[in-house]
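[Automated response] Your request has been received and processed.

Submitted sequence:
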Amino acid sequence: MRLGLGLLVMFFNVAAIAAETSVCYGTTSDGRLEGGVALPQEGVNFVSYSMIGRLAGRTYVHNKVRDIVVAAYAGLEKEKPGVVYKYAETGFSDGGPFKPHKTHQNGSSVDFMVPVVDQNGTSVHLPTNIFNKFGYSIEFDSVGNYGEYNIDYPAMAAHIVQLHREAASRGLHLWRVIFDPKMQKYLFETEYAEYLRANIKFSDKPSWVRHDEHYHVDFSIPCASER
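Generated structure:
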């Protein structure tokens, strides 16, 4: 009886894992996704950019990307206690066109809102709501200031490093990070500069939108070529 119960439990555990196995096809700009999973609404040190966006199904990713993102936040709890983070849009559960984005089609792309501090130097969440297009219409100045908020570059750099480390521990890596080229230099003034130079590929060309209020991360996940 005990052996039979053990086999039954093992069966359901395997079935649960299989149910969360995602398959991506094509590329970030011309692809699709099967078995996409939603990022958690919140954790100890992170939240989603919008409950509306989540309910609209705009926070789905490949299950391997979900695992990397969640593990990176867990690592940051220890490395950056008291610092809070916010992720933004990712994609649909089945991938495909994801307006107004030109990519985010195969479950391997995630937007993260920049971590910020207030005038007291306290880590806070950048406000994201319908009045500022859920954060995407916010415009920081050339050094990273927006009203009472300032970009926390060390916290941002630490996050990118953690994402890379978690990906590497799974035999994966980051394909690229898109962030305003003129503001990238501030990341290289942090203690993480050497690691970033050695391991992270930043896009050095201006994107069709500025990418100052958020940074876009593409994860290198093996995908089938057939779309």
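Summary generated for your ticket: Residues 38 and 60 are 4 Å apart (CA to CA). The chain has one domain: 24-220.
If you did not submit this request, please reply to this message.
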